[in-house]
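FAQ

Q: What does a record look like?
A: Structure on top, sequence underneath. For example:
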């Protein structure tokens, strides 16, 4: 029987360790299975709505006004609703080609954990995730996630709940 290879911790996992937050790490074969929330949820044995994607937004076309919204992978964001909720004139998706410069992560690896600690951007969560006691977010690498108590995550990144979908 082969030993399971221990993964090197990501910076995001180290942040959780430093703050004494319990979590489980997961890997997902995104190359062979694709970016499929239902497949990932099935593999983890958790509700699909508890797997969160991290969307980086720019407000009012201000190169210094970025924010992050986390919502279930299978849901869509309503940019007009988010702008209204936050009292912004407009918000739009950050340029994927510039994400590494904006957040320090490539598309698909953005995480509220690292962005909050590295960049200090405000973090918002879809209010519908309140129905889940645990959620999963990226661990800072594509195909890797961490699962923890929802309130531990929201508290750690000083997040707020808002309505993000029609």
């Amino acid at each position: 029987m082969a030993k399971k290879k221990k993964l090197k911790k990501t910076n995001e996992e180290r942040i959780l360790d430093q703050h004494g937050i319990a979590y489980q790490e997961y890997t997902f074969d995104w190359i062979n299975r694709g970016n499929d929330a239902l497949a990932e949820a099935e593999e983890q044995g958790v509700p699909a709505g508890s797997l969160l994607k991290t969307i980086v937004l720019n407000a009012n076309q201000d190169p210094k006004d970025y924010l992050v919204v986390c919502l279930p992978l299978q849901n869509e964001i309503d940019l007009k609703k988010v702008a209204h909720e936050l009292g912004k004139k407009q918000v739009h998706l950050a340029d994927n080609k510039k994400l590494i410069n904006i957040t320090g992560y490539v598309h698909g690896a953005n995480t509220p954990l690292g962005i909050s600690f590295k960049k200090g951007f405000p973090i918002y969560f879809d209010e519908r995730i309140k129905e889940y006691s645990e959620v999963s977010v990226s661990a800072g690498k594509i195909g890797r996630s961490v699962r923890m108590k929802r309130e531990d995550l929201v508290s750690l990144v000083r997040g707020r709940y808002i309505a993000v979908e029609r």
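Q: Is there anything notable about this one?
A: DSSP finds seven helices and eight strands in the chain.
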